[in-house]
Amino acid sequence: MQASGCSIVFFLIFSSALVSFSFALSDAEASYIASRQLLTLPENGELPNNYEYEVQVKMIFANRRLRRAYIALQALKHSIFSDPLNTTGNWDGPDVCNYTGVFCAQALDDSSLSVVAGLDLNHADLAGFLPVEIGLMTDLALIHINSNRFCGILPKSLSKLVLLHELDVSNNRFVGPFPEVVVGIPNLRYLDIRYNDFEGSLPPQLFDKELDAFPSPPMPAFVLPPNIGFQYASPPPPMFPGYN
Ligand SMILES: *[C@@H]1O[C@H](CO)[C@@H](O)[C@H](O)[C@H]1NC(C)=O
Ligand SMILES: *[C@@H]1O[C@H](CO)[C@@H](O)[C@H](O)[C@H]1NC(C)=O
Asked: Which InterPro entries match (predicted)?
């Protein structure tokens, strides 16, 4: 595959910068949510094969992939502890394409199928965790959950999202070492994990991925020279006006 000129430009700055939310979580609340996530994770953190068939759903769906998305979205809804803007208030019933923040499109491999291609919950101020079932939404091309209060870890099942192009989890309360799972997402081109509580160094494989900065200005891009950990190429400008 031909590497583009800006192949190693991406957002990947670890930061403990906190943003003042109107509904900020205390550390105790964040660790409570993280421990709830731990209780739900299968032993190895992976999504069991055939999991979708173990879940009873008495509804009719236009296709099996929408049923899988329904299972995932209901699991996500149940992992949310606080939803002050009522974003998930209409996440009921089989018509997942009508859920707030959920976007459907034709399947890439079968234009006769409508599938869930995007999850955009930016700035929803949701507190919760990402359930392992998120790996059922294998048609997702983008996940944008920036500026929420998601806690815990990024589940390993994200690696099942083979079409995922953009992953923006910035400005949440995710913890733990660098989320290695992102290295295994084959089509990932845009990654933003800034403004969380991640710690540690970056895996060298990350620099073999062809990640691009997105979107282009006014969002800042950062350059990470290979093999020297992580650093800003220039002082970090605020991500959003009035954000620091
Ligand atoms: C949240 O949204 C649902 C569906 O739109 C609505 O029925 C419900 O009354 C809303 N709840 C609040 C607290 O606004
Ligand atoms: C989805 O929402 C639209 C607009 O509110 C509505 O017209 C349509 O019937 C809904 N689709 C289903 C299947 O409920």
From this structure: Leu-rich_rpt, LRR_dom_sf, LRR_extensin-like_regulator, LRR_N_plant-typ
